[in-house]
Specification:
The chain is α+β, with helices and mostly antiparallel strands and 270 residues long. It has two domains: 168 residues, Ribonuclease H-like superfamily/Ribonuclease H (Nucleotidyltransferase, domain 5), CATH 3.30.420.10; 49 residues, no CATH class. Helices cover 34% and strands 20% of the residues. The protein contains nine helices and ten strands. The strands form three sheets. A five-stranded mixed β-sheet has the order 5-4-1-6-7, sandwiched between helices. The protein has a three-stranded antiparallel β-sheet with strand order 8-9-10, with no helix packed on it. Strand 6, helix 4 and strand 7 form a beta-alpha-beta unit. It starts with a helix and ends with a helix. The chain binds zinc ion. The site of zinc ion has 7 residues, from loops.
Length: 270
């Protein structure tokens, strides 16, 4: 019970078990991109309204890091270390392989940015994948003073972002500075690591998780979020017309069976 009340993450043993149960059930890709800033002529510094004619270069994807759930390696690609077309191609391949993509604000930022890169070079969409946007999960369930990734991961006792030198880092990277790119690479890769850690912690809070159960061959009810069959019967789930068996998974997720219970089962006689 104490473990449940403490701020400690799930035990490595439990996580290993969850990871194992999911590894073969569903391909989960955690992804994070970095973009360059827009470049524009501006006539002042304060409250500027920059017109399109002032825009010299639009921001673009300069790098991304990605990690398959259950695997150690974090992959990194950039327009500096690789080439822009290769990086974009690789992002398209990874997204196409994934059943679901985990990100933080990716529904509004990372994915549309990547889609723009795809369409600009005439690519068609990657094969469909579900999105698990942890920023949406955080906003929906909790009230932290800040919803930023760095704040939330720190508040939950997880690893945090690597400090970077801010705008200067981007300027140096745009100028092709090798050392700056090393910093960018470490920063980008660490974001993927902490996003996955956050996913582990938030797992039982996620609603509408792409079903892991659909992807394995086992019979019977399994946890919709982690795919585990280690479920405890805990009460009933009532809708306006039916009653279902309610379950609690080892990961903490509540779910309900698909089968309507008969009046005999509800009374617990059977
Ligand atoms: Zn579960």
């Amino acid at each position: 019970m104490l473990a449940l009340l403490s701020r400690k993450p799930l035990s490595p043993c439990l996580l290993a078990r969850l990871s194992l149960s999911r590894r073969f059930a569903i391909k989960l890709l955690t992804l994070d991109i970095e973009t360059s800033p827009n470049l524009a002529h501006v006539w002042g510094l304060w409250q500027q309204n920059v017109g399109l004619s002032q825009l010299l270069e639009s921001g673009e994807v300069i790098s991304f890091a990605a990690k398959w759930y259950g695997e150690e390696e974090v992959e990194f690609f950039s327009s500096f270390h690789d080439t822009k077309p290769f990086m974009v191609q690789r992002a398209h391949e990874l997204l196409s392989e994934a059943d679901a993509v985990i990100h933080f604000n990716g529904a509004r930022f990372d994915i549309p940015h990547l889609n723009r890169e795809f369409v600009e070079i005439g690519m068609t969409p990657p094969s469909p994948y579900a999105q698990i946007d942890l920023l949406k999960v955080v906003k929906k369930n909790f009230r932290f003073p800040s919803n930023k990734l760095d704040y939330v991961t720190k508040a939950l006792g997880l690893d945090h972002k690597i400090h970077n030198s801010g705008h200067t880092l981007w300027v140096k990277c745009m100028a092709g500075d090798f050392q700056a790119w090393e910093e960018m690479k470490a920063y980008n890769m660490q974001d993927v690591v902490i996003t996955e850690q956050l996913y582990d912690r938030l797992l039982p809070w996620i609603t509408g998780h792409p079903s892991t159960g659909l992807h394995d061959e086992t019979e019977g009810h399994s946890c919709p979020n982690c795919g585990s069959a280690e479920l405890e019967k805990r009460g009933k789930a009532y809708t306006s017309v039916s009653v279902f068996q309610r379950y609690r998974c080892v990961c903490g997720k509540w779910s309900r069976g698909n089968k309507r219970l008969s009046s005999v089962e509800i009374q617990g006689v059977k």
